[in-house]
Amino acid sequence: MKKKQKKNIAMAWWGTGGHVFPIRSLLETLFSTPSYASQVDNVYWFGSVNSLEQQTASSFISTHSSASASFPALHFQSILSGKFRREKSISAFLKNLKDCFFFLFWLLQSLRYLHYYHIDVVFCKGGYVALPVVFASRLLRIPLIVHESDVHPWLVNRIASRYASRVFTGFDKVLPHSHTVGQILSDELLPTSTQTLLPLPSSTSQPMVFIMGGSQGSRTLYETFAQLLQTNPTISTSFLFFISLGKRNDHLKSLFPQPNVHTFDFLTQKEMGELYRISDICLGRGGTTSLAEQKLFNIKSLIVPIPRTHDQMDNAKWFVHHHDDILLDQTSPTFLTDMETAFFSLLHYKKPPLHHNLSTKIQQAKKLIWEALLAT
Predict the structure, then answer these.
(1) Which of 56, 57, 354, 373 would give a disulfide with 45, using CB separation of 3.0 to 4.6 Å?
(2) CA distance 104 to 235
(3) Tens digits of residue pLDDT in 254-290
(4) Domain contains 212
(5) How many Cβ atoms from other residues are within 10 Å of residue 334's Cβ?
(6) Which residues fall within 8 angstroms of residue 204, CB to CB, at 6 or more apart?
């Protein structure tokens, strides 16, 4: 009987950390599960040049470059692509027209790579970079697996789901003929020892609040929160705050001189896990990965969607309805007073104890996705 050939897998997506880090977590699961790794020869990470996905892929490849020869080889392949702009302006129209003109070139490029690397199956997480790869996989009759994170699917995954062998979603009834598996979460969120990486209190009677606006587009959130602390002594002293400013907001540290406010720059997934573990409340954006991580640790979420994206507002409304979280609109003239009201309602809030196995919940989606990739 002929021995079954190992698979070459292509992964295509573009986006922020909420999309990139879940794929890294998928790869971590591959390397930590010998029964999966033994069936894969190569993994090709398709993404845009000089991007977060390239930085993340390069770091992952470097970390795993000394892995056993029995493990898959990892590669990053930069590709060109355009995007559809929804703004109703002449500039957006002209850019969309230009991208339509160049799309054939991007499609030919993807066809070449999928054929050259002998790709057996493509995994699509969404994002405009993935669109030429999706069409190329269709033309070459290469099986396609899709995962959609958000409550309402983005354009690329709406298209990809029409041709996909399997469609996975984070929420029910997002795409036709889909299977709800939840979000792709990182095993690094799990505690590995009693020794912490961050200087954290062992216990406190005060509610602990984790604030994570992200590196880009969050200045208004941080400045509004700083104003709240400066103008309201009760809130300023009633909570213990941990603020993740991100790499681009370290200049905002001076806004938080209070002794019960601790600021951090970039946090690793392990450090994020430590803060999730002790936090009762989280003030942050409406990305599904972050919100799912907070629910994993039974955290009450104060959600401030990024104003320019419809998906985060839709995600926030879903979590408000299903988990009794709190939605704060950054564009509202009452944003500051709404934030104040939310914190006053949680002055004595402590999250309920966990009644689920963290490891099992984290592995749920990744196990089903890998089984589908390897069975296709």
Answers:
(1) 57
(2) 56
(3) 999 999 999 998 888 889 999 999 999 999 999 899 9
(4) yes
(5) 11
(6) 240
Task: Provide, rounded to the nearest whole percent, the portion of the chain with pLDDT above 70.
Answer: 86
Q: Is 326 a member of any domain?
A: yes
Closest by CA position to 270, among listed 14, 21, 32:
21
69 and 131, same domain (yes or no)? yes
Classified as helix, coil or strand, 329 is coil
As for how many domains the chain has, the answer is 2
Tokens of 225: 């929160």
> Mean pLDDT over all residues of the chain?
86
Amino acid at residue number 93: F
Q: Give the domain extent around 237.
A: 208-357
- With respect to residue 282, please indicate whether it lies within any of the assigned structural domains: yes
pLDDT band at 15 (very low <50, low <70, confident <90, very high): low
228 and 154, same structural domain?
Answer: no
Phi and psi (nearest 5°) for 125? -100, -5
Within this chain, do residues 13 and 60 fall inside the same structural domain, yes or no? yes
Residue 228 scores a pLDDT above 70: yes
Nearest to 315 by CA among 169, 129, 186: 169
What per-residue string of b and e applies to 215-254 under the rule 16 or more CB within 10 Å gives b? bebbeebbebbbebbeebeebbebbbbbbbbbeebeebee
